[in-house]
Specification:
two-stranded antiparallel sheet; about 40% helix; 2 strands; 3 helices; flat; mainly alpha; about 5% strand
Length: about 100
Amino acid sequence: MKAITKEVLKDAASRLMFDMSDEQYDTLEKEFEIIIKQMKLIGEIPDVDNVEPMTFPFDVTTDFLREDEVTEPLTKSDALKNAKDVLDGQIKLPKVVG
């Protein structure tokens, strides 16, 4: 594994077209030292290579979904009856982009 040095971090930042102060590079280098130590600890766990990787920490089931039932859609007047502001048969919303 390539050593994570300030020069390696500066090269990576340059390739990503950004730069940081020397203090920020020092902080990032220290954080990588911690991460690498943690990775080594994880690598020392017996049989860690034989464990199936998790994509999500919880079992996800979709058996609770209801069955689709064909129903009549709302009429336009029912859909708009609780809208605060209606203009030309559509719900008027505030401008989002200046």
